[in-house]
Amino acid sequence: MSTYFPSGQGLPQNRKWHVVDASGKTVGHLASEVAAVLSGKRNPQWTPFLDMGDHVIVVNARKAMFTGSKQTDKVYRRHTLYPGGLRETSVTVMFAKHPERVIESAVKGMLPKTKLGRAMAKKLKVYADAEHPHAAQLPEVLDLPSRKNQK
Question: Of 50, 126, 146, 150, which one has the greatest count of Cβ atoms within 10 A?
C-alpha cells in the first residue's frame, strides 16, 4: 500500500473563495480560523510544504471586536530604522483609521514566517465594509464556529 501524495500541479486552479463576516467576532478567534483556511489545514489533502489553502475575503472588519483590556492596552510597534525611530500606535487609533490592517496583521502573525507564509497571506483580502469587488469569483460564505463566551 502506498500513501496518497498530492503533487503541486493544478493547485491555483482548484482554490475556492470564501467570504467571512467579521461583525461581532473577536479579532483573535477570527484570525486563527482564517489562517487555518489560508494555510490549507481544513483541506484533507493538506501537505506541510505546499500552499493548499483557499482564498479568504473578510468583510465588515470595522465591526470586529477585542475582548478584555486589549482595546486599551494593545499597541502596534514599528521602527523607522533611524536612531530613536520606534513608533507606537494604539489599537484604538489603528482600528479607527485602518480596521483592515488590524485583521491583516493578526492573520499574518498566525501564518508561517517563510515565503510559503507570504504566499498564503497574498490570498487574504480584507475590507472595512460589506462591499467587496470579488463577486465574479463566486465566493462561498464561510461560517466560523462560535465561541461560548462570545457575546
Answer: 126
User: Are 117 and 107 contacting, i.e. CB atoms less than 8 angstroms apart?
Assistant: no
**Residue 89 confidence class, pLDDT cut points 50, 70, 90:** very high
User: Number of structural domains, the chain?
Assistant: 1
Identify whether 148 is part of a domain: no
Domain of residue 37, CATH code = 3.90.1180.10
> Is 82 among the domain residues?
no
Tell me the chain's radius of gyration from C-alpha atoms.
Answer: 17
In a domain, 30, yes or no: yes
At position 145, the amino acid (one-letter code) is: P
- 21 contacts 59 by C-beta, under 8 angstroms: yes
Which phi and psi (to 5°) does residue 83 adopt?
A: -60, 130
Question: Which position has the grid cell 472595512?
Answer: 128
DSSP symbol at 43: S
Report pLDDT digits (tens) over 46-75. 888 999 999 999 999 999 999 999 999 999
